[in-house]
């Protein structure tokens, strides 16, 4: 079985200089790769974003003249007096409500869900 060499591993001068530079400038080790990944990812994800918008645009379509005329023809005429009374009736329903307590019979609890006190 071979033994370990007694000589320690020595780096070349070029590698030593690069390591020294990287220790002095941590941006080159952490910041630059991070920013590079962010820029590349934004270009890569832009295709997915574009697909999303293309699908949404595909659901919307323009109406031709015949369809526009058909919609205008089938429109119900608006009567201001009718709309006023319709809105008043909705408001009237909201004002006349009552809060009704519903009785719940749970064994051992009073109406406020507190344990019964023995007298």
UniProtKB/TrEMBL annotation:
<feature type="transmembrane region" description="Helical">
    <location>
        <begin position="27"/>
        <end position="45"/>
    </location>
</feature>
<dbReference type="Pfam" id="PF14138">
    <property type="entry name" value="COX16"/>
</dbReference>
<keyword id="KW-0999">Mitochondrion inner membrane</keyword>
<comment type="similarity">
    <text>Belongs to the COX16 family.</text>
</comment>
<dbReference type="GO" id="GO:0005743">
    <property type="term" value="C:mitochondrial inner membrane"/>
</dbReference>
<comment type="function">
    <text>Required for the assembly of the mitochondrial respiratory chain complex IV (CIV), also known as cytochrome c oxidase. May participate in merging the COX1 and COX2 assembly lines.</text>
</comment>
<keyword id="KW-0472">Membrane</keyword>
<keyword id="KW-1133">Transmembrane helix</keyword>
<protein>
    <recommendedName>
        <fullName>Cytochrome c oxidase assembly protein COX16, mitochondrial</fullName>
    </recommendedName>
</protein>
<keyword id="KW-0496">Mitochondrion</keyword>
<dbReference type="InterPro" id="IPR020164">
    <property type="entry name" value="Cyt_c_Oxase_assmbl_COX16"/>
</dbReference>
<dbReference type="GO" id="GO:0033617">
    <property type="term" value="P:mitochondrial respiratory chain complex IV assembly"/>
</dbReference>
<keyword id="KW-0812">Transmembrane</keyword>
């Amino acid at each position: 079985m071979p033994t370990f060499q007694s000589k320690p591993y020595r780096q070349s001068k070029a590698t030593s200089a690069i390591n020294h530079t990287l220790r002095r400038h941590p941006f080159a080790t952490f910041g630059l790769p991070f920013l590079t990944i962010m820029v590349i990812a934004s270009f890569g994800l832009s295709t997915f974003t574009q697909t999303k918008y293309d699908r949404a645009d595909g659901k919307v379509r323009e109406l031709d003249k015949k369809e526009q005329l058909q919609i205008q023809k089938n429109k119900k005429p608006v009567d201001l007096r009718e709309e006023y009374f319709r809105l008043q009736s909705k408001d009237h329903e909201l004002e006349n409500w009552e809060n009704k307590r519903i009785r719940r019979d749970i064994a051992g609890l009073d109406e406020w869900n507190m344990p019964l006190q023995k007298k």
